[in-house]
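Subject: Sanity check before I submit

Could someone independently write out the structure tokens for this chain? I want to compare against mine line by line before I put it in a report. The sequence has 982 residues.
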Amino acid sequence: MSLRGQVLHPGQQIRLEGNTTITTRAAGYQLGIMGPVVDDDGIHTNTEKSGSAYLHAGYHPLRLDWFNGPEKYGLQVEYQGPDLARQNIPNAALYRKPTNSGSTQDFVPGLDYSCYPAAGEVLPDFNELHALKTGIVSNFDLSVMVQPEHIGLEFTGYLQVPRDGLYTFYLTSDDGSRLFVDEAPPAIVIIGMTNLPEPKPMDVGQVLNLSSRRGRAAPPHRLGEDYRRVEVQGKITFASQHQNNWELELTSETGRLRLELADGFGFSPATLLNNWVDVVGVSQSAYDAEGENMGGILLVSDAHAIQILKPSGEPIIDTEGSPEVLPVLTTASQVHQLSREEAQRGYRVKIRGVVTCVLPERQAFTVQDATHGIYVVDSSESRSVVPQIGEYLEIEGWTDPSLFAPIIDASHVSDLGAGCMPQPVQPTWDRLMNGSLDAQYVELQGVITTIDTNGLTLFTGDGRLRVDLKVPGMKPGELEHYEDAVIRIRGCLFASWDYVTHMVKVGDVRLYGADISVDQPAPRDMFSLPLKTVSDLLEFDPRASLFERVKVSGVVIYAQPPEYYLMDGQNGLQFVLKKPSPELQAGDAVDIVGFPGLSGLSPLLQEAVARKTGSAPLPAPKNLDGENLIRGEYDATRVRIEGLLDATRETPVGEALEMSTASHTFMALLNGRDNFVHSLAPGSRLALDGVYVGEGGNRALGQDITSFELLLASPSDIKILASPPWWTSKRLLVMTGGLACVLAAAFLWITLLHRQVDQRTAELAIQIRQRENVEHQRAMEQERMRIAQDLHDDLGSGITEISMLVSRAKLGSAPEEKRHQYLELVREKARELVTVLDEIVWAMNPRHDSLASLVSYFSIYADRFLGLANIAWRLENASDAANPMVQSQCRHQLFLAFKEALTNVVRHAGASEVLLYIRAQNGELWLNVTDNGRGFSMTAPSEAMDGVANMRTRIEKLGGRFEIAGDPNRGTTVRFCVPLHS
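---
Independent answer below. Compare away.
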């Protein structure tokens, strides 16, 4: 029921007051109307749906949502009630409230409507859409829609009913529609508090003891043990959120249980996932696929009802005598998951479980709780007799690593009474093989193919399984009548393992304390089954199952144990005999009975038996050419392929012919040794008749083959079409050898000539390199002299000036104010020297020999220098994506010229903005400095003329060009163009 915002808590006693609709649901009863009374949603033609609601006389809120997708549309709304025959809801029963009405009883005839776009195939949420049109109608009128397709309407208002009673509503619409009629649920009156009943323990997957009436199962909400408060333990393996509610999955070795958490406030799935928990809630039965009524759902009020199982701890003494706290393990799974090293530490254990197997000769037994099974060695003196299978015990003891998996060394065993055998695990093949189910109660299903003194071989569908079987009370020979029967065996599983390596023996298991149930007795006459063709096996069969035998007749086309192939016309299959039959030959007409496997390219009959019915000619082989060799439809059929023999070689069981066609290569295999095959010369053209075996395909996955082999029954399947030509590989090898000798001699002579040319070339290269080194050394000396001169001129004079200023500042006769001036001058001069040194280092460092570095350094200098003069500046860098090299000498001279140009702007231009333009183009570097100052006239001499001369000299020394242009009061542009050298 809808609580209408009212909050309830477990333990409160309540009373429900009022008249309401009571509807039986899967989970109890529904009180009042929740959701639409009629739901006719979806894309469909005119479809009628109906629903009922108990309404009191008076006005009830009403809403009808409708939409149309493509093509036709329609809507009809009818109702039927006390003293009212089925009819269209009349205008007189539909009302609305004006938007400006303040009274709760102020109703006027009509309905409000809104028109919306509806693009999908179900009713959209109109609250999230913008209305295309709104208005008022007298009834559910579709003529107000703005377009006939992909449109939706929402009608809202009130329905007046004349008297109390059950009203049935009928919706006929094309396409979807929903009708909502609101009816308040009963009032909830809290009358007190009470203690909740003690929860009853319940296992995951437990069958409920439910009552019935007159031999038929009663509805779940009426059953005796349904909706009881229970306590369950298991592992949280899944959590999904539905608004504020959560749905969890609780798993144990006995099954699965769905948890419905009503209030998810404070719930964090990350803290619970994959943890063992204890949950208190209300059980609700649910039917499984077999119709068994299980405790399938647990209704949980809030997150406080879920507690993580944390083992308690108490001190123990380790091998060195110091106390250490180890947890007390309370579940079999906690013991089973220990490593052998952890189990050696001797954890204390206290668990309860059902005995699933007894091994009196070893004073041991196995018990299983809700989490797992575990092996127990009974070293206690608390029992005088061995336990029995099905007893419920409490066991206290210590962990022991044993020789394979951890076990419990019991110090005290208490009998708590009779227990229910756990739900057996039906393991996958992988879990059977890896030993993880050691000491677990399991159920295996399969066909017994062979019986021996120690057990049996079971065909499971995934493969053969050797089972060492111990059935209580079974005498030798009693298993024999189970051969060829489909059975289920329940018992305690033990892995088979090597006592030296401690490794699992794949394909072998032990099953103790076993019970056998026959699902399908061994047939008296297997060949009495109805006959099927190979193509029938690929068609639908309602009786088909993993262990349903089939019978097929045909002609054996290949018989070399363990491989057998058969054809019944154009179709073929492979069969694996339960017991290989040496007398079975190609050409035998046979009946084959076995278990079909259909995952491969062609059907496979496993664990088959064969009965020879006569002889028949082999089916004519299908001729394959090079264009259609790789096709899965040929699998298990006789084919003929022509090709060239590349080579022959021996295999462990016979001969192999390596063949090639124009487009493919393949192997042809012949069992046994044969001199005829050895006499075949490589290069011979052969025709081979054999069984086509495709490789790499899978019918179930829709994968075609990638290659194939050909199985030859005898040497008579090989026909020589043509002998190899005279131009054989041997003769070709001789001719190739002679030609190679001639080519080797020519190569030797050419090599000698090359060597002489290379020697003379090396001598010339040395001479050229020596000259280049001399020129490079000369250039390096000049560069060193220039750098030394710069350091001497700039740093030397600056340091001398600093020394003089410091000397004056030290004079005792100098006034204090003068000393401060001298020291300030020292600081300014030192800053200038640092700047000068930075410029010299930048110009010398080869890491900065690039245009990008030059642009970056020039920008930093311009920002610092022009910023002190409060002159704005902009950079236009039109360089390409390439970053050409700019050599050190070029960068140094260009920077000094650039520095001179900025100095002239600050001192003489009176500018407020400077534009810098840097571009590399056609092997040249262009640098423009443009200001918006008072301009420049070459005819009017000034002290800036010396700077212009210096700039021109520096640029021309680099082999470049210098230009200056300017008009009075219109600014000046200085252009530098220097060549770039790689």
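---
OP: Matches mine. For the report I'm noting this point. The chain has ten helices and 55 strands.
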